[in-house]
Amino acid sequence: MPVSEISIARSGRPRPLQRLSWLLSLALVASPLCAARPAPDPVPLEQVMAGEYALQAGQLADAARWYLEAAKAAEGDILLAERATRIAMLANDDVRAGQSLKLWRQRAPDSLALRAASASLALREGQARKARRELVQLLQASDPRAWRYALVALAGGRDPDVTAKVMGQLVGDGVIPDELVAWQEFGRLSLRLDKPQLAARIVDEMVRRFPGEPRVAVLRAGQLQQAGQTEQARAMLGVAEPRAEHDPEVRAMLAVAYEALGDFDAAARIMSRGPQDTQTYGVRASLLARSEDNEALAAMYGELSAGDGGQPDPARRMLLGRIAEFLKRPAEAVDWYRGVSGGPLRPEARIRTAAALYEMGRADDAYAEAHALQNDAGSDDEARRNAYLLEGELRQRAGSIEGEIEALGRGLAAYPDDGALLYARALAWERQDRIDRAEADLRKVLVAEPENVAALNALGYTLADRTHRYQEALELIDRARTAEPDNAAIVDSYGWVLYRLGRNEEALVELRRAWGLAKDPEIGAHVGELLWVLGRREEAQRYFDESRKLDPDNRSLLRAVEKLGLPAPVAVPVSTTEPAP
User: Fold this and answer.
1) DSSP single-letter state for residue 244
2) Residue 374: HSE in the Cβ half-sphere, 13 Å Cα cutoff
3) Which of 348, 317, 347, 315 is nearest to 332 (CA)?
4) Within 13 Å, how many C-alpha atoms sit on residue 242's CB side?
């Protein structure tokens, strides 16, 4: 799934020179110059570098092979054995993962990370008994971090049924530590696995162990909601509400739980308790906007407006401007934004001024405001660059394809090869079915930033979705997956390219995992299409229905519906407003 934010995400991953530094430091640790511990064999740099280059190219099978060779050659090197194991597991090469794990076990038999990897591999291979044995030993370790390693191992399983079976056995074995946070996390994992019976069992145990704890009530509500018992879930949250008065953490948890139920009014009511500041007002405003409770939002707006005298707060004025925009009072929004006369929020205020002018029907004034910021030598480069991005967005909203491309092109003339501008233009080209030009812009991003995760994922997904170059797409997505293996958008892209390659059962595992990580309409449409193709149409329809509730106009959903010959999505009465005014 492509990342569609207006600005490109920075991955923070090592660049090629940083990788070389890592290799050299690895060699130093393994060299006789390092007297801190007996030196293992010198690191086989040829194999390690070949593995790293394969990894950078998205050739995970080759990377797993090279790293296994390096781990074998460097006898006694724990780091290489661990890295070889993780890369093989990422490549879904269970044979090499097992061989690397054996080397790792020989070198660090008591490592928590080793036991977690061993359990995860056993789960992937369907060896529930072995996985249970490893996890019991892990959870019985004296290290207080042990349960977190166990949780990671369980989350790495492929088959939710096998994982749920083992989790249930762990509950029965009584090895989960008597810590509320541990039980919370195991409970959340059971909900992500979509296993209501397991979730109910864990919550029942939590109620027994931690009676009267509001966090348990919140988790129980989640379990009831998953089982379709919405009213019972709401009643359970009501039990925990008295604690929210003086506990900010409980307030936040309850607000999130009510939000998950779609009860934004209740979430806003909870957040209105306790001391209020600009941040809490902002959360409340967002919730009221999503519930479309304009009356309550207008009352808050009036309250905040009345308190703006004396020493005006720029953050408060920004919030007032966003609320005014939502209430369809763009002229007032402009006044608030123009009242932010200086400081770090000033560039954002100018951007929002242009957006509000556009909403007033003054498109030419909006473009002029954006142009003024673009040409303001006193503003920093990020603010000026964002003004080009905004103009492109406004031109798109006006239906001007040429205007959007032209605005982004001017931005690139001012900031050649800027990643955010190239990324935005690539998305614009993709919307116009100009896949060749979208690819060209994304590849320009990757020339400057070879490990830019957003660009790798976007290009890989585009090739998988819009061309037949599936193997090339897989390599790009694998490069992104190496950097962020638990990113929902990347996991979705990986599942989608597996589906395109005809590897349907593997694809279903990944797409379901993506859905567990993020309830996104595009991911839901992908899961639904695959299930439909597999003949599991009743289950598929559930995912289509969930996606329609989230966004009936989602492009992937509409394309799936058309492709499969299903009835067109019917709009449902949910808010499609911006999440935060």
Assistant:
1) G
2) 22
3) 317
4) 3
Helices (H), 140-240: 146-155, 160-173, 180-192, 196-209, 214-226, 230-240
Side-chain half-sphere CA neighbours of 330 within 13 A: 13
What region does 143 belong to: left with phi over 0, alpha with psi -120 to 50, or beta?
beta
pLDDT digits (tens, 9 = 90+) for 482-499: 888 889 999 999 999 999
Q: Residues near 257 by Cβ (< 8 Å), separated by ≥ 6?
A: 218, 221, 222, 237
Q: pTM for the whole thing?
A: 0.72
Q: Using an 8 Å Cβ cutoff, are 77 and 48 in contact?
A: no
Tell whether the torsion through CA atoms of 225, 228, 231 and 236 is positive or negative. negative
Task: Judge whether 477 and 455 are in contact, CB under 8 Å.
Answer: no
Pair 203, 223: CB distance under 8 Å: yes
Q: What does residue 401 show for φ and ψ, rounded to 5 degrees?
A: -65, -45
pLDDT tens, residue by residue, 245-299: 788 888 888 888 888 888 899 999 999 988 888 989 999 999 999 888 999 999 9
Which two three-digit tokens encode residue 272? 């209105």
CB atoms < 10 A from the CB of 155, how many?
18
Model confidence over 116-159: pLDDT tens digits?
999 999 998 889 999 999 999 999 999 999 999 999 999 888 78
Q: What region does 228 belong to: left with phi over 0, alpha with psi -120 to 50, or beta?
A: left
For residues 27-34, average pLDDT: 40
